[in-house]
Amino acid sequence: MEEELKRYIASGALPMHMPGHKRNPSVTDLLQDITEIDGFDNLHGPEGLIRDMELRVKDIWGSDDAMISVNGASALIFSAVLSSTKRGDKILIPANSHISVWHAVETAGLVPVLMDPEYDPAMGIYGRIDPGTFGRYLASGDIKAAVVTSPTYEGFISDTEKLHEIARSHGTILITDASHGAHFGIRGMKHFNEAMAGDLVIRSVHKTMAAPTQTAVMLIYGNEPDRSLLRHYLAVNESTSPSYVLMGALDRSLRHIDTDTFYHTVTEGRKALSALT
After folding, report:
1. Number of folded domains in the chain?
2. Within the chain, where are the H helices?
3. What is the band of 30 on the pLDDT scale with cuts at 50, 70, 90?
4. Does residue 2 lie within any of the structural domains?
5. If phi over 0 gives left and psi between -120 and 50 gives alpha, with beta otherwise, what is residue 167?
6. Which domain holds residue 105?
7. 0.90 exceeded by the pTM?
8. 15, 17, 72, 180: which has the fewest C-beta neighbours closer than 10 Å?
9. CATH of the domain at 156
10. For the segment 206-233, what is each residue's pLDDT rounded down to a tens digit?
11. Contacts of residue 141, Cβ cutoff 8 Å, sequence gap at least 6
């Protein structure tokens, strides 16, 4: 593995794939590979540096609270599903949901209710979630939680603000898997705000931002589900020896995102791309 990785890097191949940092050597520092020593907090009971990072996440994306993961969005989705349901509950799952949703359903002993998003026959892929269809599914039974992927891997964006409104009217917790939308809704940027809504919104920072693989964040809106349950199930599905290399690199990425320079670069880039159409 090590030798093949070295060959690949030495080849100079343009990294047109995740993670978003594109192998920039300034993103990570292996000398920061420590453990939970005094002064460096604990991911599974954050009160210091890690809690400060979570509060920065909250401020950047404008949520009520936030949690971080070094086991990817998958661990956060697992935590979100298990903390929002109990064994035997129904959960609404669109056909394009991530495999981690199914792992959570299997682990929790839930009853999946399947729905199809809109389908694009020309491209052969699923697209947006239709609010009318979503509402009819929720009206048909006692569905405790619903998962929506927005944006999708292919870039389709659902109106999660409307979906969240519908979910609330039925007493259903909406979990929005926005893994491919970490670049949406950052402070001061109003692009695609309709893709931001949910009781729990999960973003893979490593997919579209300058952060290493496995780093992700969960944005929490409102009081449900219980915060202690979210932390408990996150701890269940995450290492008791979380990587400080990953957490340090995530913090570096968050501090970069939270700057005027980043905001200017992104907004000017969007203007330039729009001018091409």
Report:
1. 1
2. 2-10, 49-61, 72-84, 99-108, 131-139, 160-169, 205-208, 227-236, 244-257, 260-275
3. low
4. no
5. alpha
6. 46-244+252-267
7. no
8. 17
9. 3.40.640.10
10. 888 878 889 999 999 999 899 999 999 9
11. 90, 113
